[in-house]
Design a protein that fits this description.
This protein is of the alpha+beta class. The chain is 42% helix and 27% strand. The protein has one domain. Strands 2-3-4-5-1-6-9-8-7 form a 9-stranded mixed sheet, with helices on both faces. Strand 4 and strand 5 form a beta hairpin.
C-alpha cells in the first residue's frame, strides 16, 4: 500500500510526457551509455522527524557516509542519513522507462530523483539531454509524487510550509567510454575531442555554443584520476566515473542543492522579517 499512490502517479507521467524519445544504441568507439537524472527538491517543512516518516512510509534509511573507492575526508557523511522511498520503474513510452526514489532530509527538504538509461552517440546525447532538461512535465509530476507521498506523512512534518520552494538539477552520468585502443578514455581526451558536446549537455542546449561560452563552462571541470570527470553547471552536471563513485558524486550534488534550497528559505524568511521591522519603524516615525 505504501507505493500504490506512487505507482498511480508514475502512470500519470507515462500518459502525459511526450517529449522524450528512445535513444538508439551505437556501437564502436563513439558508443555511449549511462543515465539521465533529474533531482527535484522541495522545502516542505521546518523539520522532518525521520524515524516517524520511516515508520509511516515503511521506507529505509539512506546513505550515511558515501563509500568512495578513493581517499576522502572522514567528515564527508550525511548525519543523519535521509530516509529513502523507492519509486517503481515505469514506462513512459516504448523503450523509455523511468525509475527513482524520494529522499527525506531531517531539515525539512524532500528530493524526488527520476532516472532513465540511455545508449547512443554524442549527437543523440546532446539532443536527448536538451529534451530531458527542457521537459516541464518531469518537474510537474515530480511534484505530484512528492505531494502524494507527503500526504501520507503529513502528521510527521514539523511546521509544514504552505508554499514550497523548489530546485531542479539535472545530471548526465556517463559510463565507461572506450578509446580507440580499447582502454578507458581519459578526461583530457573527452574534453579535447568532445568539449563542445559536453558544454551543450551541461547547459541543456541543442545548438552549438560560442568558444567563449564553451570555455567558461569547461572551466568548471575537475578530475581526481585520469579517467574520471565532473563538469558542474548551475542547472546540471556531467559525471564520468565508475558507477560506484558516480553515485556518491551525485549524492553530494543532491546534498549541495538541498543546502542551496535552505539558503533560499532563510533568505526569504529574513526578507519577511526585515520588511516587518521596516514597517514598524515607519509607524513609529509617523507617530512621532
Amino acid at each position: 500500500m505504501a507505493t500504490t499512490n506512487l505507482v498511480l502517479a508514475t502512470e500519470l507521467i507515462a500518459q502525459t510526457i511526450k517529449g522524450l524519445t528512445p535513444t538508439t544504441p551505437v556501437s564502436g568507439p563513439e558508443a555511449l551509455s549511462g543515465w539521465f537524472r533529474v533531482l527535484v527538491l522541495y522545502d516542505v517543512a521546518e523539520a522532518i522527524p525521520l524515524e516517524q516518516v520511516r515508520s509511516i512510509l515503511g521506507a529505509q534509511s539512506g546513505w550515511r557516509k558515501p563509500s568512495f573507492t578513493r581517499p576522502a575526508p572522514d567528515y564527508v557523511r550525511f548525519e543523519p542519513a535521509p530516509v529513502v522511498e523507492p519509486i517503481d520503474e515505469f514506462e513512459i513510452k516504448t523503450d523509455v522507462r523511468l525509475k527513482g526514489r524520494i529522499n527525506y532530509y531531517e531539515y525539512g527538504v524532500v528530493s524526488v530523483e527520476l532516472e532513465r538509461e540511455f545508449a547512443c552517440g554524442w549527437e543523440s546525447l546532446v539532443e536527448q539531454s536538451s529534451l530531458w532538461i527542457a521537459e516541464p512535465l518531469l518537474e510537474k509530476h515530480a511534484l505530484s509524487l512528492a505531494q502524494l507521498s507527503l500526504k501520507r506523512a503529513a502528521r510527521a512534518l514539523v511546521k509544514p510550509n504552505e508554499d514550497w520552494l523548489s530546485e531542479a538539477y539535472y545530471v548526465v552520468q556517463l559510463g565507461e567510454i572506450k578509446a580507440s585502443e580499447g582502454r578507458p578514455a581519459t578526461a583530457s581526451e573527452l574534453l579535447a575531442r568532445h568539449g563542445q558536446e559536453i558544454a551543450q549537455i551541461v547547459r541543456g542546449e541543442s545548438v552549438a555554443l560560442s568558444d567563449t561560452e564553451r570555455q567558461e563552462i569547461l572551466q568548471a571541470s575537475t578530475s581526481y584520476t585520469p579517467t574520471d570527470l565532473l563538469v558542474v553547471g548551475w542547472t546540471g552536471a556531467l559525471v564520468y566515473d565508475t558507477p560506484e563513485d558516480a553515485a556518491h558524486t551525485i549524492q553530494l550534488l543532491e546534498y549541495a542543492n538541498t543546502q542551496l534550497l535552505e539558503f533560499r528559505y532563510y533568505d526569504n524568511l529574513l526578507t519577511r522579517v526585515l520588511k516587518g521591522v521596516y514597517a514598524s519603524l515607519e509607524r513609529r516615525r509617523s507617530f512621532l
